[in-house]
Design brief:
alpha+beta
Length: about 190
């Protein structure tokens, strides 16, 4: 086979300049990618801090509503043995039901594409617990909802407080009604 003729001096210097420009372009792109990776790592650390150091339970389900990840708090909340949580259905891992709930908090983002909020009452050792669930859709790079992140907060103590406030409000309304509609004169005075 016949070899290509050697490049002419002008052509050689043009090729060298073109290669230098490409190297500069590649270095710039690698710099941009490096910065983006640093930003992503910072965001990952923030998310990990929230998920792993809060008192909320977090779990992620796929489109089949199977748990694919859960934090330690969810392991404590779930009625299942921690070794059985991953791969279990949301209905088993959270609600102890054989079927998916009609109002399943994990399923809502798959149907609506939006963040969903739902209050649950769960029977656990020690009594009924009131849980506030927030479900967030997780999109694939092609903007398809592939997973849902569910955050669970135990608001049992808040519901007790809410009932106490409601009872106090009702009592004040009864007192005000009696006081204002009484045919006898009444007054309240300070000491």
């Amino acid at each position: 086979p016949k070899a290509d003729p050697p490049p002419l001096p002008d052509e050689s210097s043009r090729l060298v300049e073109e290669l230098k420009r490409k190297v500069v372009d590649y270095e710039r792109w690698f710099g941009v990618l490096d910065n983006q990776m640093r930003v992503l790592e910072r965001e990952r650390q923030k998310l990990a801090a929230v998920v792993n150091h809060s008192d909320a339970g977090f779990f992620v389900v796929n489109a089949s509503l199977r748990v694919i990840w859960a934090n330690e708090i969810f392991h404590q909340i779930s009625p299942l043995d921690p070794s059985r949580i991953q791969g279990a259905g949301c209905n088993e891992a959270l609600c102890q039901r054989d079927q998916t709930c009609d109002l399943c908090p994990a399923a809502a983002p798959f149907r609506t594409g939006k963040v969903a909020h739902h209050e649950l009452r769960l029977d656990r050792e020690g009594g009924e617990r009131h849980i506030y669930a927030t479900s967030v859709p997780i999109l694939s790079p092609s903007a398809v909802i592939e997973e849902t992140l569910v955050m669970l907060q135990d608001v049992t103590d808040l519901s007790v407080l809410r009932r106490s406030q409601d009872a106090l409000r009702a009592s004040e309304e009864r007192f005000r009604s009696i006081f204002q509609q009484a045919s006898a004169g009444m007054a309240t005075i300070a000491p």
